[in-house]
Amino acid sequence: MHIKKIISCVFIALCFSSTSVLAEEGGIDQTVNEVFAAATGWFVNLIFAPLPGTTFPWIVLWLVTGATVFTVYFGFIQFKAIRHSISLVKGDYSDPDDAGEVSHFQALATALSGTVGLGNIAGVAVAVSIGGPGATFWMILAGLMGMASKFTECTLGVKYRNEYADGTVSGGPMYYISKGFKEKGLPGGGILAVLFSIFCILGALGGGNMFQANQAHAQISSIVGDYPGWITGVIFALIVFAVIVGGIKSIANVTEKVVPFMGILYVLASLVIILMNIDKVGWAFGQIFEGAFTGLGVAGGFVGALIQGFKRAAFSNEAGVGSAAIAHSAVRTKEPITEGFVSLLEPFIDTVVICTMTALVIIITGQLTTDPTTGLYLVGESGRIITADGSSGVALTSAAFGSALSWFPYVLAVAVVLFAFSTMISWSYYGLKAWTYLFGEGKTTELVFKVIFCLFVIIGAAANLGPVIDFSDASIFAMAVVNIIGLYFLMSLVKVDLKSYLSRLKSGEIKKFKN
Amino acid sequence: MSTKLIVGLDGSESGERALTYAKHLSKLIGDCQIELVYVIEWSPYSFQTAEENAMRHKRREQEIKLASERVITPALEVMKTEGFAAGGRVLHGDAAELLNSVAIKEKAQQIIVARSTESGLAAKLFGSVTAKLVMSASVPVTVVN
Known about the structure:
The complex is a heterodimer. Chain A is mainly α.
């Protein structure tokens, strides 16, 4: 308990010193960047360090190794259980007496609204513009493997959550690591849980907040013209404040309803464009497979494609990061493993379906330029493939959709802003749960975090803080370092539950309520 | 075996009318039991924030407690003093589907509801609970004006 408090106090000191530095920004972005980079650069470099003699970041290998270990350990559960997962989401196994509780569908939709977002739109564009079409192959593979990571972490999230006397729940890696390690008689669970919580708070303020606000502002200003970022920041912060502090549910409800609609519209628009170019689909898949193993001229060859595919898949679906375990732990079920089955659909929807759609649209609309004589992609000085109109990131995806459906960039702009907002709301909750794990549950403690969270929205939108964003990305991946260590030690507990569940399912003890 | 009647209550004056009619019918039948059902509209396919999910169990308990205290318990107390055999329950879900499923489960002879208070665009777009019940119910339905 002492260690928990000491580490937490050091963290508060760090947090306040960084905010006081940030508070001085406004025309002194450069200074802020330098100060922050000097203080945090070592951490960013450590997390994204390449393996010796390669350009392959070790953290990507860490995530992929984790996903592979879970896939093999659970006997390719993601492929065997997918039909059962869909049955669970449909409510076939839900007891009617539990009506009114959080359903499997709701837990999945909530977790998805936290992950579907800029990663699917901007991240994929980055992946294919650096790694070429081949990156798509590795992205899909990473998505499929990541399903096993989600299965493991979300089962543990429900199994070891805290249930309070008033009926509310708190769960996530910090709870399963500390409780699970204790149960198995392993040392170090407490320290790992505190470390996870610290990284989670930093990730929530950075990648889950500042990065989102920053990108939303960039998107809005690209349409209405340039204007100061703090205006977007204040507006966003007020809306976020109204939702998370004021409890104005109507705003959250509207977002939570519009976001899935936007997601569906995005997939439909992609399908329309793919159907319009049906003759090129075979060629596109040819490019994806050929590029996956040869690189087709991209920087770094096939390894370059592989790194980009794996990295962007991890950024997008967060498998192994531990965030989804927090979101899924709210479900009341007698069988924690059912939530694992449901959560494995997340990387499938996020990466295998939505990210692939984005990649296919960019490829078949001919955004990536090739050398007509060699058929290889033309790579510019920046190491990126030269695109049709020179754009990259969200703008590349927008140009790809716009080349087929001229009105779609406007829809995409609205989608980006809404996705950013819903990601912020989700991460405000993940950060809050980590915060209350460190500082205890309570209205005042919660309010402090929520106010800090809103202030960071303004900072994120107002400043061009590259190093801060690098740092927050590094924090999200640092969550995965701690979480996956925890999962390795606790996966045997999931296996026991899995065996028991599958045998009871086979024997008919676990009944279907709907046919 | 006594006759069972299912009465849908919604805490409004129209629900009271349905109950009054059910009591009248019960007296005519004689050996009759009335089951009061209050449905809190809820869908497992709605979208919620993570925080709402974490609070959901608590909210559900509060919703059931509130509906029981305000609608079901007072109605049952009055019916008891008046000498009716009655039971009651609060459920979450789709009102039309649940009234029907309770009727099937309880082997009830009839469902009694009041005419829907919904009107205008909402009723036109989504159809009222009453209309849905009349069209889908497996037992006779009486709609009280």
